[in-house]
Amino acid sequence: MTNTGSVLQARGLRCVFGRGRDQQVAVDNVDLDILPGEVVGVVGESGSGKSTLGRIITGLQSREQGELLLCGQPRKLHASSAEFRRFSGVVQMVFQDSYSSLNPRRTILDSLTEPLLLQGQSKQTAFQQGRAWLDRISLSSAAAGRYPHELSGGQRQRVGIARAFIVEPKLVVCDEAVSALDVSVQAQILALLKDIQQTQNTAMLFISHDLAVVRHMSDRVAVMYKGRRVEFDDVTRVYESPQHEYTRRLLSLHMEASL
């Protein structure tokens, strides 16, 4: 594998669900690379493999084959809990469901500072950083002692974003991070996400079915179809001069829905 300056290098990733006749290839021989500070969008219809690809990269899903390097360090085929912790300072994830991603029995401050404590920081230092991040994501100090069900969906997603970025990872994977939110709230969350990403110069893999959002957020975009990466290029070139028939169809459907 080349381009050692990449935050992420993936070659030949493959993931299969089920066995025998029920076997389904979710990710099929996918290559991907992400540079420091770059945002790579991933688009495709439901079942295209885009979310599975994100979970493989974060270590939440094992793969059958393929090479995966994070900041030059190889990630094993089947991620153990120890390896997952080892890479937690390198790659983090923002989930679609902000409620299920937070422990309902833990306060917002406890959930926010958990990644710092896992890295060995003292509780006092972690809480100081956690409160600073609450201010950074425009939540009042009163939110520190509240529980997830006491916040709105948009507020919970702000916490999810802060929780991912608080350890200053090199890569953040966002899987449909705004799709469950109202349109008016989506714009606010996307602006916050982009601001933090640019301020920290964090690479990001931005997975979404919303082509307009991906174009707004991304530098390059990968198009997934039936588990394969069928196109990968500068976002403007993909949107204005798509090379693959599936990409052209996807963009056509997007244009029709926008009318």
Automatic annotation (TrEMBL):
**Protein species of origin:** Spongiibacter pelagi
Q: Does Nucleotide-binding show up as a keyword for this record?
A: yes
Under the GO molecular function aspect, what terms does this record hold? ATP binding; ATP hydrolysis activity
Q: Which family does the entry's similarity section mention?
A: Belongs to the ABC transporter superfamily.
CDD domains with a match to the protein in the record: ABC_NikE_OppD_transporters
List keywords of the entry alphabetically.
ATP-binding, Nucleotide-binding, Transport
In this chain the ABC transporter domain maps to 8-251
Alphabetical list of PANTHER family matching this protein: D,D-DIPEPTIDE TRANSPORT ATP-BINDING PROTEIN DDPF-RELATED, TRANSPORT ATP-BINDING PROTEIN
Q: One short Pfam family name for this protein? A: ABC_tran
Record SMART domains: AAA
Q: Name one GO biological process term.
A: transmembrane transport
What's the protein name?
ABC transporter ATP-binding protein
